[in-house]
Amino acid sequence: MRILVYNDISLAADYRAGNVNALLSLLSWLSTQGQVTVLHTHFKRPERELPPNVDVIWRPDYLNLVVRHLRSKFGRRLPFLRYKDSRFKRRHFSRLLRGGTWDAVVVEYLDNAFLLDAAPIPPGTRRIVDLHDLMSARGDSFRSQGIVTNENLDIDLATELEAIARFDTAICLQASEAAVINEAISRRPAVVTRRNPGVPIDGFIVPAASSRDDAPLRIGFLGTTTEFNVDAARQLLGPRYESEGVEYRIAGSVCGVLPDAAALPNVRLLGRVNDLGTFYAGVDVAANLIRFGSGLKTKNVESLLFGVPVITTTVGAEGLEDFAGQGLYVADDETAWANALRELRLGDNPARNRRQLRERALAAFEPEVVFAALRRELGGFPAARSPS
């Protein structure tokens, strides 16, 4: 099987957001199905290590980046389905498409759907879009909290569904979004791949529990400086802050926008961390008090895979309902937060519980489980034929 992937998510070594983890997980699995060629147009040079049969062709579209920046600066940004469109991307995509026989074409993010018009795609080639999120729902979530974001979320659900309908398969990260799509489009194109975030978890050993009864409960948060991460960190150190019996360990670039946190006696700002295993071994619970956004929160999946229970919100629990009360605690207010901390403090044998949680998460996010529906989609489509 030969698979062509278009991607404009950064593959730079220092970029560690959830979307790149989801992409790496997909590429890793696709590489088990055949030869994968990635047309990569992000302006930063790709540095991530990929499977040997994943070939990355780097063609940075600097002009489109500048045009998008200027349009945004002067309030003339184009709508969601048009703002990334460029002759440069179409030309390089068309050359690859015409230059080989492809069993599947995968487009990362719906805002790159214009590539379907770059060149005729043969009937035997499956057209797949990796949505990551329903962007209309994401925009609604941001607006409901009065959040102004740099993301282009200028699309309504009807327009989004119309664009999705142009593809044979739409990959979703959670079942609720797939249900919305399949209810609206009679072909039911949406499949769910609740992805493993692709972090290095092999060889991780759950640490022994502290033998001290008075040891503080170590609460961890790891995040970038995106709006929802900054807000979640401020929720943790603001309305949910406790001064007794807990220690906060904050890591990632978010530390740079929390100047007042360093003055709190039980807060440790760790900055960027290179070894996730060391970070998760040093916390008892992960907190992700995210209040807006959409889609599966890979940060929470990451914590579960390291055997670390998570306290999150209703927004953060989307797509992880099967872990509710069993490693995942929902705390939308201060009372629920206090109850979750109390339950974690009084829990029996935390090290054993962490091992069980890790084993359950590893089984739930095993690639053959996660990508089962996508495998059926690829297997049920006629293979592309070479030109005679």
Write a short abstract of this structure:
This protein has 388 residues and is α/β, with parallel strands linked by helices.
As a percent range, the share of helical residues equals: 25-40%
What is the topology, as strand order, of the major beta sheet?
3-2-1-4-5-6-7
Estimated share of beta-strand residues = 15-25%
Instruction: Please state the CA-atom Rg, rounded to the nearest Å.
Output: 22 Å
User: What would the average pLDDT be, to the nearest integer?
Assistant: 89
Question: How widely separated are the two ends?
Answer: 18 Å
Number of strands: 13
Order of helices and strands: EHEEHHEEHHEHEEHEEHEHEEHHHH
Layout of secondary structure:
Blueprint: E1 2-7, H1 18-30, E2 35-40, E3 54-58, H2 62-73, H3 87-98, E4 104-108, E5 126-130, H4 135-144, H5 157-164, E6 169-172, H6 175-184, E7 190-192, E8 217-222, H7 227-237, E9 246-251, E10 267-271, H8 276-281, E11 285-288, H9 298-305, E12 310-312, E13 328-330, H10 334-346, H11 350-364, H12 367-370, H13 372-379
Parallel strand pairs: 1-2, 1-4, 2-3, 4-5, 5-6, 6-7, 8-9, 8-11, 9-10, 11-12, 12-13
